[in-house]
Description:
Blueprint lengths: L4 E5 L9 H15 L3 E5 L2 H10 L3 E7 L7 H14 L5 E4 L10 H6 L2 E3 L6 H18 L3 H11 L20 H10 L1 H5 L17 H14 L3 E5 L2 H13 L5 E5 L4 H10 L2 E5 L19 H10 L11 E7 L6 E3 L1 H9 L4 E5 L32 E6 L1 H4 L7 E6 L8 H11 L6 H14 L2 H31 L8 E2 L4 E3 L6 E3 L5 H6 L23 E3 L3 E5 L16 H10 L6 E2 L3 E5 L6 H19 L4 H4 L1 H6 L1 H4 L4 H15 L1 H10 L8 H9 L3 E5 L12 E4 L3 E4 L11 H15 L6 E3 L1 E3 L6 E6 L28 H4 L6
Parallel strand pairs: 1-2, 1-3, 3-4, 4-5, 7-8, 7-9, 9-11, 11-12
Antiparallel strand pairs: 6-13, 10-17, 12-13, 14-18, 15-16, 18-20, 19-20, 21-26, 22-23, 22-24, 25-26
Helix pairs in contact: 1-5, 2-3, 6-9, 6-16, 9-16, 10-11, 10-15, 11-26, 17-20, 25-27
Amino acid sequence: MAGDTVLFAVREHPGDDTVGAEQLRRIRKELEAGGFAVRWAGTGADARTVLRTEAGLAAVLVDWGLGSGGAPGGAAVLRQAGRRFQNLPVFLIAADESLEELPLWVSETVVGYVWPTEDTAAFIAGRISSAARTYREAVLPPFFKALRRFDDTHEYSWHTPAHSGGVAFLKSPVGRAFHDYFGERLFRSDLSISVEALGSLFEHTGPIGDAERNAARVFGADLTYFVLHGDSTCDRLVGHFSVTRDEIALVDRNCHKSVLHGLVVSGARPVYLIPTRNGYGLSGPLPPDEIQAGTVAARIAENPLTRGALSTEAQYAVFTNSTYDGLCYDAVQTARGLAASTPRVHFDEAWFAYARFHPLYVGRYGMSVGPDTFPGPDRPTVFATQSTHKLLAALSQSAMVHIRPTPRAPVEHERFNEAFMMHGTTSPLYPMIASLDVATAMMDGPQGHWLIDEAVAEAVRFRQSVVRIGRRIEAAGDRPAWFFGIWQPETVTDPASGERLPFDEAPAELLRTDPSCWELEPDAEWHGFPGLSRGYCMLDPLKVTVTCPGIDASGRMADWGIPARVLTSYLATRQVVVEKTDSYTTLVLFSMGITKGKWGTLLDALMDFKARYDEDAPLDRVLPELVAAYPGRYTGLTLRELCQEMHDQLREVSLVQLLDTAFQELPEPVVPPQLCYQRLIRGGTERVRLSAAAGRVAAAMVTVTPPGIPVLMPGEGIGTPDGPLLRYLTALETFDRRFPGFRSETHGVTLDPETGDYLIECLCRGEEVPRAALGDARELAVPAPAAAPTTAATAAPAERP
């Protein structure tokens, strides 16, 4: 297995004739004969490099006098081993030192001492081997350990799945190719729930139950559940459990569409809370005033859907933390604000599973809300749903639900498990469960902090490098100015001295460890969000937003600009795929898998794009596939001409400002989302063009990427032709027609292939519910029409995206 390496951090010996050197070589040979690989590092720097980069270590021997500096060389290696690994067996070679002369902390770090010449090489190697094997076994978490043991028994399979450990694939040419590509071990570990030795995902017993309980400990929860269908299923599960039909749910408008799906399943009546937005079009946090009891009560009172609800009190609140662009809340302050309005608070932390494991994020994640930080009977039950695979090391679709229940809103396991089983599967993929177990173990103890700290350090280096390039170009004065930026504070304060420092000149250690460097100060120009209080919101350094010229955080547009869609199209030609693109910003994620080479490639691509823009390169050299796909549209254009033409279009139609208005002036709620879904399934809806959509009621969600947030929810009125929603969607439709190849990804919109028109799903005229009937939506019948209505729009051969 991995973890078969022993590190010798030992001084280089000038000759081969010393007794100590000869004995160390014998120890090395004994270990190698026992199946271990040995890495030899002769300096403290080399030893620390191995500790940083080699995760497969099973034991370490450290020479206390390592390096020219004497004792400090070995001390530094010991300290790094303790920071990097949990329970890694470390032996101290102390040939010339008395134990009484060593610092007291050394005895707490090492598992034993080695005097090479006082025991036989075989005995010393045996001690090291025994400790290494014990460590290798102990490092495996509960379920993964049990799965490996079951695999090692090589039992015949008499249960599902039918490929029987992969044997079925070997009987077909294409199956053999599939088997060879993924390897036998994957198929041997793809097992049935009939294997009792591995426990049950639904009963939470055996090694699976042990793994979930271990995850609860590591992530700071009282209860943790493994979910194998992604954070989307976690959101639906928690929503379905927390709120029932005709109860009120408070929903962050900056929510994932799966949150709405949970409301459709439960039949709840949503009341939306409105987040802030800035000039770039980035969605910010819910401002503090938005979650206060008075504001929430007013929103509930003015919402037509709350008439006739089971209670005027909300039973559930859900919001996104951190946001897609990396804005994370003071979790305790947010929970206190919402606690006056609801007994259940759900932190959708799809992109934030790592927060507990680094001091930058102290108090900014859901499971930090507990009896120690929020004592008393008012504390709400807190849920945190995490897409473990997104930014921790788990297989795709692997996710977790963490819960800290309170007497105010108890979560009995048996009741929650009913909802869990409704959204789960009786045929789980065991490698996915193992990946959740392993992802948990990777974050346990000092190694979790080490992994996230390394990602934060690389993100800081990249952020500072982008700013420094601009300063270097300005100082050289031999080329046009640098035009890329990073969305981040321009200056930070050193708390020790009180000195205000330019961001790129701040010590990396300060930026890596001090949360105040990343907090959104009230009314600061760089972030552009109004209504924030000090310490309420922080920018996550791991979510890096690259800014392009053309607009600023206040929304002021310049005469020239470079839309981010052009940049990301170029980056794709360089095999650099970003996470998200808005009109003038693009988001890249710094995860545990980041390296200097990886972000260096991105930086080089940004510099190359600038060089091509400065020289006004022909577009067929910069984006050859775009020109080949649409020759009539782009042949003869240069990169600079395309950028300016697109910028002029965005400025002329005010697309960014229209999007902001569409999010701030929400559509009127008309009917509950669940009723729209019932109409959709039973043929009570039709697709209509935007030009005919005014005054209609949406039957399906419309989500535009960018920004990836719903602009229209089922059951909401689409409004007038000059209203914010239709103006925005019409401007987006016009943009897509004018710039083929740069079309927005719009969920809930069908594209007419002949005209390029947007088609959206609306309730049929005869199926619309009179507003007077909203007094009690529970009494609304859902008639089943004899046949689905046919219109010109529905007859058009169009597929959903």
